[in-house]
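If you are new to this repository, start here. Below is one unmodified record pulled from the training split, so you can see the exact layout before writing a loader.
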Amino acid sequence: MGCDVAGWTGGGVERVSPARGEVWRAELDPVRGREQAGERPILVVSTDTFNRGPADLAVILPLTTARKKVRWHVEVSPPEGVVAAVSFVKCEDVGSISKDRLSERWGEVSEDVMRAVEDRLRILLQL
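And here is the target side for that same chain:
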């Protein structure tokens, strides 16, 4: 699960292609309602093929350090994903963001964490 960086044609601006299972820092503002706000870690859950595609988007789940014992949250403990404190993947807060919102790759989560995330998404989305 590596990071692929490709140059735009003619512009010289570099575009990131995050990989499924990676944790990135992202700017989520502006938001509405109960969505996670601000600059925070996110987990990329979209396929690598989609992440490298022309949509220039990634499907993500935000992480939080707030322990709320919500059944949809998956725990991530340091040093996994390079989080500094015990964090929780908010599987109920699935969304897509422009890859322009991604500022720094932190690391990646284990296969066990990804399986737990996938299990919760299957239930939430009836897949």
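Two things worth knowing about this chain: Residues 1-13 have pLDDT under 50 and may be disordered. Strands lie at 4-7, 14-17, 22-27, 39-44, 57-64, 73-76, 87-90, 95-98, 102-108.
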